[in-house]
Protein backbone atom coordinates (compact mmCIF):
# COMPACT_ATOMS: atom_id res chain seq x y z
CA UNK A 1 0.00 0.00 0.00
CA UNK A 2 1.35 3.42 -0.92
CA UNK A 3 1.80 5.72 2.10
CA UNK A 4 0.80 9.32 1.43
CA UNK A 5 2.15 12.33 3.30
CA UNK A 6 -0.31 13.45 5.98
CA UNK A 7 -1.00 17.18 5.84
CA UNK A 8 -2.10 17.81 9.42
CA UNK A 9 -2.30 20.92 11.61
CA UNK A 10 0.77 22.54 13.09
CA UNK A 11 1.58 22.37 16.82
CA UNK A 12 -0.12 25.69 17.65
CA UNK A 13 -3.35 24.76 15.86
CA UNK A 14 -3.42 21.39 17.59
CA UNK A 15 -2.85 22.93 21.04
CA UNK A 16 -5.64 25.47 20.43
CA UNK A 17 -7.98 22.63 19.47
CA UNK A 18 -7.09 20.51 22.52
CA UNK A 19 -7.58 23.46 24.87
CA UNK A 20 -11.15 24.06 23.65
CA UNK A 21 -14.02 23.15 26.05
CA UNK A 22 -14.99 19.46 26.25
CA UNK A 23 -18.62 18.63 25.28
CA UNK A 24 -20.79 17.41 28.17
CA UNK A 25 -22.98 15.15 26.03
CA UNK A 26 -20.15 12.89 24.79
CA UNK A 27 -17.88 10.50 26.70
CA UNK A 28 -15.51 7.64 25.98
CA UNK A 29 -17.19 4.28 26.48
CA UNK A 30 -15.71 0.79 26.70
CA UNK A 31 -15.70 -1.91 24.04
CA UNK A 32 -15.49 -5.69 24.11
CA UNK A 33 -14.06 -6.52 20.70
CA UNK A 34 -12.19 -4.64 17.96
CA UNK A 35 -10.88 -5.78 14.57
CA UNK A 36 -9.77 -4.39 11.21
CA UNK A 37 -11.16 -5.96 8.04
CA UNK A 38 -9.45 -5.52 4.68
CA UNK A 39 -12.06 -5.00 1.97
CA UNK A 40 -11.25 -6.87 -1.23
CA UNK A 41 -11.23 -3.78 -3.42
CA UNK A 42 -8.51 -2.41 -5.65
CA UNK A 43 -6.77 -0.65 -4.01
CA UNK A 44 -7.67 -2.33 -0.69
CA UNK A 45 -9.59 -0.45 1.99
CA UNK A 46 -9.57 -1.05 5.74
CA UNK A 47 -12.62 -1.01 8.00
CA UNK A 48 -12.36 -0.82 11.80
CA UNK A 49 -15.18 -2.69 13.57
CA UNK A 50 -15.86 -2.27 17.28
CA UNK A 51 -18.45 -4.08 19.40
CA UNK A 52 -19.54 -3.64 23.01
CA UNK A 53 -22.36 -2.77 25.38
CA UNK A 54 -23.46 0.84 25.82
CA UNK A 55 -24.86 1.98 29.21
CA UNK A 56 -27.79 3.90 27.65
CA UNK A 57 -30.05 2.32 25.03
CA UNK A 58 -30.51 5.59 23.12
CA UNK A 59 -26.79 6.47 23.14
CA UNK A 60 -25.18 7.02 19.70
CA UNK A 61 -21.75 5.40 19.38
CA UNK A 62 -19.14 6.77 16.94
CA UNK A 63 -15.51 5.95 16.18
CA UNK A 64 -13.51 9.18 16.11
CA UNK A 65 -9.86 9.32 14.95
CA UNK A 66 -7.56 11.67 16.85
CA UNK A 67 -5.83 14.60 15.17
CA UNK A 68 -2.04 14.42 14.66
CA UNK A 69 0.69 16.74 13.46
CA UNK A 70 2.50 13.75 11.88
CA UNK A 71 1.59 10.13 11.20
CA UNK A 72 1.99 8.01 14.38
CA UNK A 73 2.86 4.33 14.60
CA UNK A 74 -0.66 3.51 15.79
CA UNK A 75 -3.42 5.97 14.88
CA UNK A 76 -5.70 6.31 17.91
CA UNK A 77 -9.45 6.01 17.36
CA UNK A 78 -11.75 6.87 20.28
CA UNK A 79 -14.99 5.04 21.01
CA UNK A 80 -17.34 7.93 21.76
CA UNK A 81 -20.87 7.68 23.13
CA UNK A 82 -23.18 10.68 22.73
CA UNK A 83 -26.50 11.29 24.50
CA UNK A 84 -29.17 13.73 23.37
CA UNK A 85 -32.50 14.42 25.00
CA UNK A 86 -33.67 12.22 27.87
CA UNK A 87 -31.32 9.30 28.47
CA UNK A 88 -32.67 5.75 28.84
CA UNK A 89 -30.36 4.02 31.37
CA UNK A 90 -30.76 0.52 29.92
CA UNK A 91 -27.73 -1.42 28.65
CA UNK A 92 -27.80 -2.37 24.96
CA UNK A 93 -25.27 -3.95 22.56
CA UNK A 94 -23.68 -1.74 19.92
CA UNK A 95 -21.54 -2.18 16.82
CA UNK A 96 -19.72 0.68 15.11
CA UNK A 97 -17.52 0.78 12.01
CA UNK A 98 -15.18 3.30 10.40
CA UNK A 99 -13.17 3.35 7.18
CA UNK A 100 -9.62 3.93 8.47
CA UNK A 101 -7.82 3.67 5.11
CA UNK A 102 -6.84 7.35 5.30
CA UNK A 103 -6.13 7.33 9.05
CA UNK A 104 -3.73 4.42 9.48
CA UNK A 105 -0.53 4.66 11.47
CA UNK A 106 2.71 3.24 10.13
CA UNK A 107 1.90 0.01 12.01
CA UNK A 108 -1.88 0.12 12.49
CA UNK A 109 -4.59 1.59 14.71
CA UNK A 110 -5.20 1.85 18.46
CA UNK A 111 -8.77 1.67 19.73
CA UNK A 112 -9.33 3.83 22.84
CA UNK A 113 -12.21 3.20 25.25
CA UNK A 114 -13.03 4.52 28.71
CA UNK A 115 -10.86 2.02 30.60
CA UNK A 116 -9.00 0.02 27.94
CA UNK A 117 -6.92 0.45 24.80
CA UNK A 118 -6.12 -2.09 22.10
CA UNK A 119 -3.56 -1.88 19.32
CA UNK A 120 -4.25 -3.62 16.02
CA UNK A 121 -1.51 -4.23 13.47
CA UNK A 122 -2.67 -3.66 9.90
CA UNK A 123 -0.92 -5.39 7.01
CA UNK A 124 -1.71 -4.03 3.56
CA UNK A 125 -3.11 -6.56 1.13
CA UNK A 126 -2.89 -6.79 -2.64
CA UNK A 127 -6.46 -6.04 -3.65
CA UNK A 128 -8.98 -8.63 -4.76
CA UNK A 129 -6.62 -11.61 -4.55
CA UNK A 130 -8.31 -12.91 -1.41
CA UNK A 131 -11.83 -12.64 -2.80
CA UNK A 132 -14.11 -15.62 -3.32
CA UNK A 133 -13.69 -16.65 -6.96
CA UNK A 134 -14.89 -19.60 -9.06
CA UNK A 135 -14.49 -20.54 -12.72
CA UNK A 136 -16.50 -23.26 -14.49
CA UNK A 137 -16.40 -24.50 -18.07
CA UNK A 138 -19.72 -26.07 -19.10
CA UNK A 139 -19.27 -28.74 -21.79
CA UNK A 140 -22.73 -30.23 -21.43
CA UNK A 141 -24.59 -30.86 -24.72
CA UNK A 142 -26.15 -29.45 -26.76
CA UNK A 143 -23.87 -26.44 -26.14
CA UNK A 144 -22.67 -23.86 -26.83
CA UNK A 145 -19.79 -24.41 -24.41
CA UNK A 146 -19.72 -21.61 -21.80
CA UNK A 147 -17.03 -20.36 -19.41
CA UNK A 148 -18.47 -18.66 -16.29
CA UNK A 149 -16.34 -16.71 -13.79
CA UNK A 150 -17.92 -15.51 -10.54
CA UNK A 151 -16.44 -13.32 -7.82
CA UNK A 152 -17.75 -12.03 -4.49
CA UNK A 153 -16.16 -8.80 -3.24
CA UNK A 154 -16.77 -6.67 -0.16
CA UNK A 155 -17.29 -2.94 -0.75
CA UNK A 156 -17.23 -0.22 1.94
CA UNK A 157 -20.69 1.08 0.95
CA UNK A 158 -23.60 0.23 -1.35
CA UNK A 159 -23.53 1.65 -4.88
CA UNK A 160 -20.20 0.27 -6.15
CA UNK A 161 -20.26 -1.06 -9.73
CA UNK A 162 -17.98 -4.04 -10.40
CA UNK A 163 -17.35 -5.49 -13.85
CA UNK A 164 -15.13 -8.11 -15.51
CA UNK A 165 -14.01 -7.82 -19.14
CA UNK A 166 -11.61 -9.69 -21.41
CA UNK A 167 -8.16 -8.11 -21.21
CA UNK A 168 -6.62 -6.85 -24.44
CA UNK A 169 -4.00 -7.98 -25.23
CA UNK A 170 -4.05 -11.45 -23.68
CA UNK A 171 -0.91 -13.02 -22.20
CA UNK A 172 1.58 -15.45 -23.68
CA UNK A 173 -0.21 -18.51 -22.25
CA UNK A 174 -3.27 -19.26 -24.45
CA UNK A 175 -4.74 -21.52 -21.76
CA UNK A 176 -4.80 -18.71 -19.17
CA UNK A 177 -7.65 -16.24 -19.75
CA UNK A 178 -6.87 -12.71 -18.53
CA UNK A 179 -9.80 -10.61 -17.26
CA UNK A 180 -9.72 -6.94 -16.22
CA UNK A 181 -11.50 -6.12 -12.94
CA UNK A 182 -13.01 -2.60 -12.88
CA UNK A 183 -14.44 -1.09 -9.68
CA UNK A 184 -16.40 2.18 -9.93
CA UNK A 185 -17.39 3.92 -6.66
CA UNK A 186 -20.85 5.50 -6.15
CA UNK A 187 -21.23 9.09 -7.35
CA UNK A 188 -23.46 10.39 -4.53
CA UNK A 189 -23.87 10.05 -0.75
CA UNK A 190 -24.52 6.50 0.47
CA UNK A 191 -24.86 4.71 3.79
CA UNK A 192 -21.63 3.56 5.44
CA UNK A 193 -22.51 -0.13 5.36
CA UNK A 194 -20.14 -2.85 4.16
CA UNK A 195 -21.83 -4.49 1.17
CA UNK A 196 -21.04 -7.70 -0.70
CA UNK A 197 -21.09 -7.39 -4.49
CA UNK A 198 -21.19 -10.29 -6.94
CA UNK A 199 -19.56 -9.98 -10.36
CA UNK A 200 -20.10 -12.50 -13.19
CA UNK A 201 -18.32 -12.94 -16.52
CA UNK A 202 -19.57 -15.35 -19.20
CA UNK A 203 -17.97 -16.27 -22.50
CA UNK A 204 -19.08 -18.74 -25.16
CA UNK A 205 -15.95 -20.53 -26.30
CA UNK A 206 -14.52 -23.89 -27.37
CA UNK A 207 -11.12 -23.02 -25.90
CA UNK A 208 -10.10 -25.30 -23.04
CA UNK A 209 -8.77 -22.82 -20.47
CA UNK A 210 -6.84 -24.17 -17.49
CA UNK A 211 -6.91 -20.96 -15.44
CA UNK A 212 -8.45 -17.50 -15.33
CA UNK A 213 -6.33 -14.62 -13.99
CA UNK A 214 -7.97 -11.47 -12.59
CA UNK A 215 -6.01 -8.29 -13.35
CA UNK A 216 -4.34 -6.22 -12.05
CA UNK A 217 -3.57 -8.03 -8.77
CA UNK A 218 -4.74 -11.64 -9.21
CA UNK A 219 -5.80 -14.22 -8.28
CA UNK A 220 -5.29 -17.05 -10.77
CA UNK A 221 -8.35 -19.33 -10.62
CA UNK A 222 -8.35 -22.98 -11.65
CA UNK A 223 -11.10 -23.73 -14.17
CA UNK A 224 -13.38 -26.61 -13.20
CA UNK A 225 -15.21 -28.52 -15.94
CA UNK A 226 -18.85 -29.57 -16.03
CA UNK A 227 -19.38 -32.29 -18.64
C-alpha geometry: elongated
* Number of strand segments: 16
Poorly predicted sequence stretches spanning 5 or more consecutive residues:
1-6, 124-130
- Helicity level, as a percent range? under 10%
Mean pLDDT: 82
What keywords describe this structure?
4% helix, disordered N terminus, 227 residues, elongated, 5-stranded mixed sheet, single chain
Q: Could you provide a short overview of the structure?
A:
With about 230 residues, the protein is mainly beta. It has one helix spanning about 10-20; strands at about 25-30, 35-40, 45-55, 60-65, 75-80, 90-100, 110, 115-120, 130-140, 145-155, 160-165, 175-185, 195-205, 210-215, 220, 225. The chain folds into 2 domains: about 10-120, no CATH class; about 130-225, no CATH class.
Please tell me about this protein's structure:
This protein is mainly beta. It has 2 domains: 11-121, no CATH class; 128-226, no CATH class. Helices cover 4% and strands 47% of the residues. The protein is built from 1 helix and 16 strands. The protein has one helix spanning 11-18, and strands spanning 26-28, 33-39, 45-54, 60-65, 74-82, 92-99, 108-112, 117-121, 132-138, 146-155, 161-166, 176-184, 195-204, 211-215, 220-222, 224-226. The strands form 4 sheets. Strands 1, 4, 5, 7 and 8 form a 5-stranded mixed sheet that branches. A hairpin with a 7-residue loop joins strand 9 and strand 10. The longest helix is centred in the first third of the chain and has 8 residues, at 11-18. It is elongated, with a radius of gyration of 23 Å. 21% of the residues are buried. Residues 1-6 and 124-130 have low confidence and may be disordered.
